[in-house]
Request: fold
Amino acid sequence: MGICISCSASARKIQDGNENAMFFGKNIDLSGVQSFGSLYSKAGSKGLNQDSAILYQGYGVGDASLCGVFDGHGKNGHIVSEMVKNHLPALLQSQMQALEQFTLVTKSDGEKNYDDKTDTESKPSKNFKKWEDALCNAFRVMDKEIKLQQDLDCSCSGTTAVIALRQGKDLYIANLGDSRAILGTMTENGIKGIQLTTDLKPGVPSESERIRACNGRVFALEQEKHIQRVWLPHELLPGLAMSRAFGDFVLKDHGIIAVPDVSHRCLTSEDQFIVLATDGVWDVLTNNEVASIVWEAKTAEEAARTVTETAIATWKTKYPASKIDDCTVVCLFFSSL
Reply:
């Protein structure tokens, strides 16, 4: 698949003396990472770091890059996020290959290929449909693979996922849960963070409507009125704080789905980078704050680490009585458009 860096709770640490801070490399010279992006993860104060992340350069075809963050939750959330990190990129690639093969067959029967260059006006929408199908299929298969693990109880464990694929000027995003993607765009007033995904939480009207239509319950506990959670029809369990996820099979008949929200953006010369991060970052930093930190970083490698450590420090001052959430960040820079 090309150059890859990835992170999880089991990978090696940076030599900075901090046992929670992690930066990871695999089969590459880490100095080369600076040319296109960085990732960094740091455990909060809840115990084992359940986040994972990945960053590929040369993914699939030509100039494509793929990045993603996965925020595990529940007893086995760290295992689920690791599984998704390890398997989802290959599943996506296989789904794309299957679709390409299908379009070649249908084209031979007289139908137009997704990429028929004579159909220039409709080409963007057809490309998006192809990627949307591949992403949704890959997520569906991934969820089935998790469920088939005989020695892994994921009834109340799972992970979010947000992945971004950049191919030339096209940026495709697939979001599952409450991690987030933003775009760093240069404006006349400086760098701005544009949110690319919706935080898919139970409080989103369309999400709660689906859950309640499946007899799931959505409400906040008295002691945390600001957090809407998903509950079984007749039990005060499990209290999931997101509306879509891999795993969490006890709620899959009650409105929790593994279908990603897929979107597309055509990049311009003003667009500088994309940042993906788990909700521990967005709970304490705004989109513009994150974009500014990344833009002011001295190197691409330093960007993800600085955002992560700023988020951890902000947790300590903003919510001193709360347990700090795990924080994971991936930065992908657009060196040329």
